[in-house]
Amino acid sequence: MAGLRLTPEDSELPQANRPAVASSDLISDDDRSIAADSWSIKSEYGSTLDDDQRHADAQDAADAFLSSGNFRTAASDYSSDKEEPDSDGVGSLLGLQSYWDAAYADELANFREHGHAGEVWFGGDVMETLVSWTKNLCIELSQGHLPTDLNDIKIDPEGDKFLPAWSVLDLGTGNGLLLHELAKHGFSDLTGVDYSEGAIDLARGLANRDGFPNIKFLVDDVLETKLDQQFKLVMDKGTLDAIGLHPDGTVKRIMYWDSVSKLLAPGGLLVITSCNSTKDELVQEVDDYNQRGAGSFLEGEVPKDPEAARNPIFRYVNHVRTYPTFTFGGSTGSRVATVAFLHN
């Protein structure tokens, strides 16, 4: 289950333990259950997936790897097959591409047979808030404003005219429903990428069925992207969470920031929505990356560019403060955090 999401004022408090499994136990019944429950914030419409089949497919992939004895020996060997768990690493099935290939094969079959769209990760209410908030933030930036507080973001009824100029990239797009919602709000230059071919097949099918044929969907891995285009707005709803659940999640998250820094145009906006990190944790991760400088992979390494600390790559802009909260153990927090960063 996702840990307690804390408000900015309480973010220094400890989080609940997150799901994590050692690769040596990767295929146990308990681990399959943990993988299914790791992201508990799913669609308000419920799952259309056959979880037993999904876990069986993920288990087959893990069995094949474990029987090969071909374990990795160092987390820094990040160029190896992304599906190979580190023998000493900690992670989750949700961090493996095989899990998502199986999941989207199932969702694609359900779509073709029953017309089901699949899951809305974090729920429809969160997606609606996220898109409306992002739209208003983009309009403010288009008008030369840099709103650093919720009250600075204003609703401009004439603002839709700015949105076609915002080229949008959705990382780990899945079924592409986030891009549908962005299109409904006035964005028109929309691209979704996912490393699972099944996800892209599903996203294309849904877009054509629901009247969004102009949305582009491409098979691409953000960690090894083949895209040669820069985008003005990059959206991430849960992808960084999944990357962090890989056995080599620490290294791969740094690779993620290197890749996003190339995909996001100067002056562009990155909007991350997470259920595994608080706002302050995301800001700290970005600060750490800025301190290291692009291309550095070791924690504490001196930046190659001495100016990196004075000229950060990413700058915090704003975050959503309107998600529903709950109180547990005397602490109040939200299950989801959405944070926006500007590419300098």
Describe this structure in words.
The protein is of the alpha/beta class and 344 residues long. It contains 9 helices and 11 strands. The strands form 3 sheets. Strands 5-4-3-6-7-11-8 form a 7-stranded mixed beta sheet, with helices on both faces. The protein has a two-stranded antiparallel sheet with strand order 1-2. The protein starts with 20 loop residues before the first strand and ends with a strand. The N terminus is likely disordered.
Short description:
The protein has 344 residues and is of the alpha/beta class. It contains nine helices and eleven strands. The strands form three sheets. It has a seven-stranded mixed β-sheet, with helices on both faces.
The helical percent reads: 25-40%
Number of helices: 9
Q: What is the topology, as strand order, of the major beta sheet?
A: 5-4-3-6-7-11-8
Instruction: Find the count of extended strands (DSSP E, 2+ residues).
Output: 11
Largest sheet: 7 strands, mixed
Instruction: Show unreliable segments.
Output: 1-51, 61-90
Estimate the mean pLDDT confidence.
76
Which geometry do the CA atoms define?
Answer: globular
Radius of gyration of CA atoms, rounded to a whole number? 20 Å
Topology order in helix (H) and strand (E) letters: EHHEHHEHEHEEHHEHEEEE
